[in-house]
């Protein structure tokens, strides 16, 4: 249109080729947005299109085939909308879903048929046992039904999709529908299965059996609590697509945008074939549907180097007829597709066979999708290794590789193998340098102490229920204690606001106690808040799902993606779904372990563990449940039967008689202790420690209640004193 490209954009083109370069300076970035550039770089373009086999480009033994016909009449649709109305959809999510559905219903065509299913723990079908035609009255009644949906109950994903699949299957079987019509289910949820069948593998199997390759399933997730892998795999296994929207985004317009992608089917059962003796390693060449505005892309290798043409056949059907398109594409056209020597298009880095790169990119995506769908561990490992090998060979960033950025001149090194939790999300995405948040050199995980996934951190921590472990290096002792708090309590862990400017608070979440236990409930850390006011104000709020960093500019990061962010005095490094390392002024370091349960027991919750790995920058006046022990030592006394005391060291503890009472001398207070073993670092390490009972009575200054903060940003440094950052 009339919109000019952003600053620094250079477009070089010939009659058949174009290259777009976007390389803004820092000054140009600030002109675009105050916070710099954080988003997608989108190029909108089109080519001359007609109903032909499309555009086939060939270069140096590889081909890529683009098929995107236009000006075709739309196919009729049979669509079932399956909408989550559980209690978690309350508020913005359900409101935005309703707004989007009102618009989508208005866009249905007269030849379409539809129905709506709302589900929570109960499943409600708008029009029982049938799909209705698109008429003004039916659209009006459907809008009323959606308007009256109210959030309540749990989430029965399996039951809702089984109902939707049966409804669509019965309609197809019992009605004389147009043979070329397209049937599909559009499924939307904001959560995980909590009612009925909750095991992902069973749900996937049930849905695949119910659909039986007769139609496609398109899945949409809203918010941070959805099971992304389940939705993605459901769509992949049933010829659909998936999308994920954040709750705080404009979900209504994005839902409508996603529907627009699939709302106008033009062709079905598209198959593209090439002469068998001429090609190999061809990417996906069968597509159930082609939607208006999309593009089918296929790539492969040529094996018959003596042939002067490539035979291409495209078969498909549309609303009026079946289509067969044929063409012999000339192979000897190097001058047309070779960008070498073309002014403005030569990049000088040896990646001139862009067609080979297109083939490798599509192949890597298919390998990752196949890995996601596989249930065989050996096959998954093979597919991962194959995708990783191709990614390293062709310099693509994938879930198994990471791009390292150099500050000097912003040169990049080739992707390297990365040990992170695999996911097909984000293939091709790169770490972005943010205005005010500069990515530090080398964003890979630091070399571990004892293995690929271990961390060089001390035992100084609360973790689990929460269990505290304190190291006293000079005394060669470890002391441990429990804090039995109440759900919602906010505990002061480190209070050094006046000196170093650092405060750490942790908020507890509750869970039922295990059966036959002595506790009335369990508690875990659900949120860790780290505040710093030197040299400038900043804070971090960390949960098992996401991190909020605010140092004057607010930044939201996902715990599910490896990333690194640095400001002038604060560095945050995320190892996906594993841990978060926070470094303040290079003299204070905290490590937050992320605990996720795939199949949590009723008494388990996703939670955090907090470890101090470097306390050099904290002052001698530090306090809090952890901070008070940073600069103090304790003595272990053994009280024999005649009540005389003697000091013992760590090397003597194993020989202690179990009958005498062991006592710690802490700031003149005598604290009875017993010998225990504790597991830390996700249970990977066992620590021997002296355990203080009764909520650390006499071990800590004051009592447990003295360490309760009034809110997550409370920076009170002494009992009875409350400040806020």
From TrEMBL:
GO molecular function: serine-type endopeptidase inhibitor activity
GO cellular component: extracellular region
InterPro entries assigned: ITI_HC_C, ITIH, VWF_A, vWFA_dom_sf
Keyword Acyltransferase recorded: no
GO biological processes: hyaluronan metabolic process
Family designation: Belongs to the ITIH family.
Superkingdom classification of source: Eukaryota
Keywords from the UniProt entry: Glycoprotein, Protease inhibitor, Secreted, Serine protease inhibitor, Signal
Gene name per UniProt: Itih5
Boundaries of every VWFA domain copy: 78-262
PROSITE patterns cross-referenced by the UniProt entry: VWFA
Pfam family, one: VWA
Keyword Glycoprotein attached: yes
Subcellular compartments: Secreted
Main location: secreted
UniProt protein name: ITIH5 inhibitor
């Amino acid at each position: 249109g009339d919109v000019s490209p952003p600053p620094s954009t250079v477009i070089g083109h010939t009659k058949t080729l174009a290259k777009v370069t976007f390389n803004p300076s820092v000054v140009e970035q600030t002109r675009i947005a105050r916070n710099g550039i954080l988003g997608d770089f989108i190029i909108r373009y089109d080519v001359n299109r007609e109903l032909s086999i499309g555009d086939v480009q060939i270069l140096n033994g590889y081909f890529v085939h683009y098929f995107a016909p236009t000006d075709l009449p739309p196919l009729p649709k049979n669509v079932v909308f399956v909408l989550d109305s559980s209690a978690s959809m309350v508020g913005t999510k359900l409101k935005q879903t309703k707004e989007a559905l009102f618009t989508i219903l208005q866009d249905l065509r007269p030849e379409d048929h539809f129905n709506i299913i709302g589900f929570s723990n109960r499943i409600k079908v708008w029009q029982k046992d049938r799909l209705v035609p698109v008429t003004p009255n039916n659209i009006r009644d459907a809008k009323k039904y959606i308007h009256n949906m109210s959030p309540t109950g749990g989430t029965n994903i399996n039951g809702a999709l089984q109902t939707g699949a049966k409804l669509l299957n019965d309609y197809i079987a019992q009605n004389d529908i147009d043979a070329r019509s397209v049937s599909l289910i559009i499924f939307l949820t904001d959560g995980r299965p909590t009612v009925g069948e909750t095991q992902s593998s069973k749900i996937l199997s049930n849905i695949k059996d119910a659909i039986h390759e007769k139609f496609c399933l398109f899945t949409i997730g809203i918010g941070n609590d959805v099971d992304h892998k389940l939705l993605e795999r459901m769509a992949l296994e049933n010829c659909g697509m998936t999308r994920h929207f954040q709750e705080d985004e404009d979900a209504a317009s994005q839902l409508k945008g996603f529907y627009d992608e699939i709302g106008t089917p033009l062709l079905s059962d598209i198959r593209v074939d090439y002469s068998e003796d001429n090609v190999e390693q061809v990417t996906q060449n069968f597509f159930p549907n082609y939607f208006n505005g999309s593009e089918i892309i296929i790539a492969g290798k040529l094996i018959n180097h003596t042939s002067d043409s490539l035979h291409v056949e495209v078969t498909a059907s549309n609303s009026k007829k079946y289509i067969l398109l044929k063409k012999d594409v000339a192979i000897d056209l190097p001058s047309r597709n070779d960008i070498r020597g073309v002014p403005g298009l030569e990049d000088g880095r040896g990646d001139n066979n862009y067609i080979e790169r297109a083939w490798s990119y599509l192949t890597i995506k298919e390998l990752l999708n196949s890995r996601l769908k596989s249930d065989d561990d050996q096959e998954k490992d093979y597919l991962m290794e194959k995708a990783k090998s191709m990614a390293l060979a062709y310099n693509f960033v994938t879930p198994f590789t990471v791009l390292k950025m150099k500050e000097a001149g912003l040169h990049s090194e080739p992707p390297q193998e990365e040990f992170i939790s695999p996911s097909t999300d984000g293939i091709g995405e790169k770490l972005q340098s943010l205005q005010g948040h500069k990515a530090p050199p080398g964003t890979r995980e630091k070399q571990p102490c004892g293995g690929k996934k271990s961390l060089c951190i001390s035992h100084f921590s609360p973790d689990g229920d929460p269990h505290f472990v304190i190291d006293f290096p000079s005394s060669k002792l470890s002391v441990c204690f429990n804090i039995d708090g109440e759900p919602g309590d906010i505990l002061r862990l480190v209070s050094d606001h006046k000196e170093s400017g650092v405060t750490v608070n942790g908020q507890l979440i509750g869970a039922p106690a295990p059966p036959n236990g002595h506790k009335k409930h369990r508690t875990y850390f659900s949120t860790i808040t780290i505040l710093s006011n030197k040299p400038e104000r900043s804070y971090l709020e960390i949960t098992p799902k996401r991190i909020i960093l605010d140092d004057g500019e607010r930044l939201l990061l996902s715990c599910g993606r490896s990333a690194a962010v640095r400001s002038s005095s604060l560095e945050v490094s995320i190892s996906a779904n594993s841990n978060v390392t926070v470094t303040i002024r290079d003299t204070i370091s905290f490590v937050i372990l992320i605990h996720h349960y795939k199949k949590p027991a009723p008494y388990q919750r996703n939670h955090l563990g907090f470890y101090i790995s470097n306390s050099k920058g904290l002052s001698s006046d530090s306090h809090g449940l952890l901070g008070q022990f940073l600069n103090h030592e304790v003595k272990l006394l053994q009280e024999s039967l005649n009540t005389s005391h003697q000091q013992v060291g760590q090397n003597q503890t194993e020989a202690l008689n179990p009958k005498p009472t062991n006592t710690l001398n802490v700031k003149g207070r005598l604290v009875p202790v017993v010998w225990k073993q504790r597991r830390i670092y996700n249970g990977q390490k066992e620590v021997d420690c002296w355990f203080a009972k009764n909520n650390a009575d006499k071990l800590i200054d004051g009592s447990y209640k003295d360490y309760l903060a009034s809110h997550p940003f409370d920076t009170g440094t002494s009992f009875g004193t409350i400040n806020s950052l």
